[in-house]
Amino acid sequence: MMIRREPMTAAPKVSIILPVYNVEPYLRQCLDSVVNQTEKNIQIICVNDGSTDGSRTILQEYADRDTRFEIVDQENQGAGSARNAAYPFIKGAYTYFADPDDWLNIELCEKASRRIEETGADLIYIQALREYPTGKNRPTRKFKENLPDIRLTPEHRIDLFRPREVPWLKFWNSEFLLKHQIRFSEGKRPYEDMLQSWKGCVLADRIAILDEHLYHYRNFRPGSYQNVVNQSHFAIVDTMNEIETMLKETGKYAAYRNLLVKSKLTRFRQTYFKLPENLRPAFRELVLNALSEDDRCALCPSQDEGANYRPAHRIDRCFYKMLERHGIFDKTLFRSFSILSRLGQFLKHNFLRLK
After folding, report:
1. What integer pLDDT is reported at residue 258 of this predicted model?
2. Domains of the chain by start residue, with CATH
């Protein structure tokens, strides 16, 4: 059911989208930071994803006294599906996706709107602070000092992929977002934001940077997908496959192939370490089956590729060094690699037990 408020007197400048599911203890802080934005001409789209706590009541409370709110109700389908459900209702010139258990700097919309207007960018990247239960915080990774503004080559864009795949680090031109259908992965699973992030970054003609910490991310919240480690994290394999399909469909695969392979290996390694011991054997099998012949080629350039080839990071080459023990790669390609990293030890003690 869609609950609409009276129409605003002017088209909103920014549409803020919140996927809401069972975040009652944190929701008011988030909503207060949204309604108190210094940019007042905003639309607040809250998608209630089948909450069973008091989250829906809180949303209604705010909507009853603020006509900028619109509430969309749906059965629980996951954060990606909830964000996608908001797309038909976007009216703002710009769009921002926040999480309802975090909070915004009250100047976020004003400063981000000004920056995107100054640059004519399709999207801009901002900075955030990771807030810990201890009361301490830590800023997200700094942008590279030599990162050019506006028009970025694939090599320059690499700095924007990880760890910036989360939706709250990006502020979108709505026309670009909707024209290219830059949506999230569907379903109740983690990593639902990676596809949207990759697609936006590779398709944007202009990307700009706003190097200010304008968002507060609540780290280690109990109950969040990232902190509940179970078999749902196997979805990282499907997510990387979706990204590969998107790159091929958009004609961007050749430019980003090496980065995709590195991301696969890094994500698979991180996921393995997160999983409990009883799930690791099944995930090992899934990883080995997921690595394609083209993944091998990304690290084993043909003679034609010559000097233009840029190898993946050393620890990911170690991953392939170990996989060749399973007959997947030519071991002569890796004789000069020293296995010094944690990844090498991980594979030595785990992947080699498969046979």
Report:
1. 84
2. 2-227 (3.90.550.10), 231-354 (no CATH)
